[in-house]
Amino acid sequence: MFSKVLIANRGEIAVRIIRACQELGISTVAVYSEADRESLHVQLADESVCIGPPASRESYLSVPRVISAAEITQADAIHPGYGFLSEKSGFAEVCEASGIVFIGPPAEAIRVMGDKSEAKRTMIAAGVPVVPGSDGVLESLEEAEATAERVGYPVILKARDGGGGKGMRVVTRAEDLEKQFQIAQAEAEAAFGSGAMYMERYLVKPRHVEVQLAADKHGNVIHLMERDCSVQRRHQKLVEEAPAPGLDESIRQRMGEVACAGARGIGYHSVGTMEFLYEDGDFFFMEMNTRLQVEHPVTEMITGVDLVKLQIRIAAGEELGLSQDDIVARGHSIECRVNAESPYHNFRPSPGTIQALHIPGGPGIRFDSHVYSGYTISPHYDSMIGKLISYGGSRDEAISRMLRALAETRIEGVDTTIAYHREVLAHPDFQAGKVDTKFIERMQSGNGSAKGAGKGEQPQA
């Protein structure tokens, strides 16, 4: 086992990793930017190193500075958390070259799954169903037109190097393809430095269902059930739950088996998540997140497995110590991402100082966060304050406990999404489990009162 781990991240995930390391008896090193000098992860770690100014590219995204901090403190492993450097294959390679263990998958697995067209080809070879579309990057408008004709409208154009909804356009008619292709290319070029595009059939009312995976360096691969992440806006998840409500048991089993096959196909080890779009009994590979997910707590709640500890043990060379038969889902769990945003002003960020804070408690309630009374939320980073998680013996109980916890939570000094989450969970469609990636869109259009979602959103991925 490692003696010292450097956490190359900030916020709630850095705190989560530090706590896991403490329970494993591992010393921790926090890195921080000048804006995060008073952050909780800095206070909780055994050591801390300032790695630069507030701008992420000069601190949390600076590979030389992170590696230097690890070398100076003699850390023998680096945990990247999620975001920042977590899915940068080059960073994993630098760690290896520096004699530091990267707590994550092999660099090649990150590279392959980070290239959407190559990931699709690799998953097809592994027997994973994919959404019908282009075989790879579209080389021309003419190829895009031919592909759309073969697949059938509506189609969705996606940037090869994209994420977070950038470089994506839905096209419902052939006469609109040329214009939307050009717009998507320009947006992708501006956001990612590449206008490479591919195309898929656009699913009208899909659910976003993902499978949690764990694989060790000894060839053992298991899944830890699935999560439903369909409640999202602008392709950003708002509410996640496990297991996925109303999913047929045969689909659940097949999805888990396919996800494991995909992981084996790329020689994966570490924890990771295979994401699918599910509609009318069919499911299709969307992407693989080769890291810990934000929503990992709901899986922990229903399986009793600490995914962060498991990830660290795998990186240290240990076997999983679990078989597929050991994974049994009990009860139901829901997570709400609490952000410092103004939901009724199109989710405008609300940085500032938290004047007062009350965290809810009681049976089945967990709050993963890095904030405290007097903490200043910086405008430089993600606006997430924390993750409120509920657990119940049934989905109804998990919902009622979440509504109680949301009502108890008090965060003063900044606007938050708490009231918005209460609207979502109280909505009849959510309570009935009738959610898909258009759920928020339906709410905004009049079938609910979610006034903050904005016009014309197309959440799908």
UniProtKB/TrEMBL annotation:
<comment type="function">
    <text>This protein is a component of the acetyl coenzyme A carboxylase complex; first, biotin carboxylase catalyzes the carboxylation of the carrier protein and then the transcarboxylase transfers the carboxyl group to form malonyl-CoA.</text>
</comment>
<dbReference type="InterPro" id="IPR011761">
    <property type="entry name" value="ATP-grasp"/>
</dbReference>
<protein>
    <recommendedName>
        <fullName>Biotin carboxylase</fullName>
        <ecNumber>6.3.4.14</ecNumber>
    </recommendedName>
</protein>
<keyword id="KW-0460">Magnesium</keyword>
<dbReference type="InterPro" id="IPR004549">
    <property type="entry name" value="Acetyl_CoA_COase_biotin_COase"/>
</dbReference>
<keyword id="KW-0547">Nucleotide-binding</keyword>
<keyword id="KW-0443">Lipid metabolism</keyword>
<dbReference type="InterPro" id="IPR011764">
    <property type="entry name" value="Biotin_carboxylation_dom"/>
</dbReference>
<feature type="domain" description="ATP-grasp">
    <location>
        <begin position="120"/>
        <end position="316"/>
    </location>
</feature>
<dbReference type="InterPro" id="IPR005482">
    <property type="entry name" value="Biotin_COase_C"/>
</dbReference>
<dbReference type="Pfam" id="PF02785">
    <property type="entry name" value="Biotin_carb_C"/>
</dbReference>
<dbReference type="GO" id="GO:0046872">
    <property type="term" value="F:metal ion binding"/>
</dbReference>
<comment type="subunit">
    <text>Acetyl-CoA carboxylase is a heterohexamer of biotin carboxyl carrier protein, biotin carboxylase and the two subunits of carboxyl transferase in a 2:2 complex.</text>
</comment>
<keyword id="KW-0444">Lipid biosynthesis</keyword>
<keyword id="KW-0276">Fatty acid metabolism</keyword>
<keyword id="KW-0275">Fatty acid biosynthesis</keyword>
<dbReference type="InterPro" id="IPR016185">
    <property type="entry name" value="PreATP-grasp_dom_sf"/>
</dbReference>
<dbReference type="GO" id="GO:0006633">
    <property type="term" value="P:fatty acid biosynthetic process"/>
</dbReference>
<comment type="pathway">
    <text>Lipid metabolism; malonyl-CoA biosynthesis; malonyl-CoA from acetyl-CoA: step 1/1.</text>
</comment>
<dbReference type="InterPro" id="IPR011054">
    <property type="entry name" value="Rudment_hybrid_motif"/>
</dbReference>
<dbReference type="Pfam" id="PF00289">
    <property type="entry name" value="Biotin_carb_N"/>
</dbReference>
<dbReference type="InterPro" id="IPR005479">
    <property type="entry name" value="CPAse_ATP-bd"/>
</dbReference>
<dbReference type="GO" id="GO:0004075">
    <property type="term" value="F:biotin carboxylase activity"/>
</dbReference>
<dbReference type="GO" id="GO:0005524">
    <property type="term" value="F:ATP binding"/>
</dbReference>
<feature type="domain" description="Biotin carboxylation">
    <location>
        <begin position="1"/>
        <end position="445"/>
    </location>
</feature>
<dbReference type="InterPro" id="IPR051602">
    <property type="entry name" value="ACC_Biotin_Carboxylase"/>
</dbReference>
<dbReference type="InterPro" id="IPR005481">
    <property type="entry name" value="BC-like_N"/>
</dbReference>
<dbReference type="Pfam" id="PF02786">
    <property type="entry name" value="CPSase_L_D2"/>
</dbReference>
<keyword id="KW-0436">Ligase</keyword>
<keyword id="KW-0479">Metal-binding</keyword>
<keyword id="KW-0067">ATP-binding</keyword>
<keyword id="KW-0092">Biotin</keyword>
